[in-house]
Amino acid sequence: MAKTVRTTIIGGSNTVMEPGYLGQFLAASERQGLRLDVVENMAVGGTTSAYGLFRLKTSAALDRSDLLIIEYTLNDAFIYGDERRQFRHWARIHEGILRYALARNPRLKICTLILGARNGSWLGSIPSIDAGIHYLADWYGTAKIDISRLLMRRFGREVVTDPGFYVDQGHYARPVATAMVADLAAEALVETAHKEGWDNETSTYLPPAVDPDHFADAGVIDVPAIFRAAQDARLIEYHNRRFALTAIDIAKHKLTLKLGGGKLLGVFHVSAPATVPLALTRGEAGHHCSLLKGGVRDGKFKFLAAMLPCEFLYGAELLQDTGQETFTLAGSEAATSLRQHVAKDNVLQEPVSLETASLPLLGLLHSGSCLDFSATARGALASPPEARLTAANSA
User: Fold this and answer.
1) Cα 238 from chain centroid (whole Å)
2) What local confidence, expressed as pLDDT, does residue 232 receive?
3) How far apart are CA 246 and CA 321, in angstroms?
4) Spatial CB neighbours of 361, under 8 Å, sequence gap ≥ 6
5) Other CB atoms within 10 A of residue 336 CB
């Protein structure tokens, strides 16, 4: 009889795809005696580890889980790459996930799946993020399954570079390549469970941090929850067979966030045809940020849960203590004086009217301390009550 392991999953689009490797992986694991009972699959396409940390902090799934599976390597490599500054920033996020998860549930087992993109750096060199996962997994005593390495060793370079192995830059072809990935992952996971004695429910020792500035204590701002106090704020529900999301429309509002000793790490939102670009400012510097995904623009998806990584705000200051800073977020009708920013997974948007568009936000993730957060109506709508969050009641 298969051993049942309650499992929470965070990751990118490979882990969302149905059919895809995940369903085949669950079936292959059970055939080998390990049944993964999915408590919650929080995977969202086009997101990074920062979204995973955000979701874990806004859910109680870890409290009901025996195992956490992390699948962000491919997405993280796409966003953070191999550049030293970006890599260290990524490492703070990944270490933050490990430390936060183990602190919240000391009996939790963690396994990181390392997937590789078509023509990725893993094919001809040592990939930084893959290597970082190996290092942090060894440090924290967590499991890692390097699918890229296993594919290369078992099937050879000719197979993984074959045009038919991937359907595009970031997704394995279905059903053959996904089945190969699933079988390798299941075999390695079952072997790890036996080797490490997952029947033993003793607490995991939490070692000193590798990077003292890790993001395990990153703060979460649940924007819809804060806005419930403002009667003019419109909640928008998005539903399909995979997702059920509640966002708040801030198209006619301005959010102001004041941080002490921290960074804005991510803005989490819904990308829909009517989603307006975001005017995001850090101090005096402003950006006109497109939030539109190509699949939404082309009509493939009615909406997508999405994130805007915020490393672009900092440049050379990404790893520096920038002290106390103020950020504003609002709908942007036109770029005008703002600097244009299109995230790697987004497409350029045409200017739209705030009267007919929406700006559906899910939340914010930041490091440091939230000194103040306020939401105020814009222009003629300045009379409704202001919603405010202070450090005392921030997540």
Assistant:
1) 19
2) 62
3) 34
4) 223, 224, 247, 248, 250, 255, 267, 268, 269, 329
5) 10
DSSP string for 326-377: EEEEEE-S--TTSEEEE-TTEEPPPP--TTT-B-EEEEEEESSEEEEEEEEE
**3 state SS of 84:** helix
Local structure of residue 275 (DSSP, 8 states): B
SS3 state of residue 218: coil
SS3 assignment, position 316: helix
Q: What share of the chain is helix, strand, coil (3-state, %, to 5)?
A: 30, 30, 35
What token pair was written down for 389? 């969050």
Measure the CA angle with vertex 390, ends 387 and 395; round to 5°.
100
Residue 292 sits at φ, ψ, to 5 deg, of -90, 130
- Token couple for 285: 């510097």
- Give the 3-state secondary structure of residue 199: coil
Alpha-carbon gap, residue 291 to 63, rounded angstroms: 33
Residue 108: name the closest of 59, 64, 72 by CA: 64
DSSP strand E in 42-94: where? 67-71
What value, to the nearest 5°, has the Cα angle with vertex 257 and ends 254 and 262? 150
- pLDDT tens, 247-271? 989 888 889 999 999 999 999 999 9
Adjacency order of strands within the sheet including 67-71: 34-41, 3-11, 67-71, 109-114, 143-146
Task: For residue 342, count other CB atoms closer than 10 A to its CB.
Answer: 15
47-61, 122-136, 351-365: least confidently modelled range: 351-365
Burial class (CB in 10 A: 0-12, 13-18, 19+), 323: exposed
Distance of CA 319 to the CA centre of its chain: 20
- Whole-angstrom distance, CA of residue 268 vs CA of residue 247: 10
Q: Which residues of 298-310 are buried (b: 16+ CB within 10 A; e: fewer)?
A: eeebebbbbbbbb
Lookup: tokens for 315 = 């440049």
Q: Which tokens go with 314?
A: 């900092």
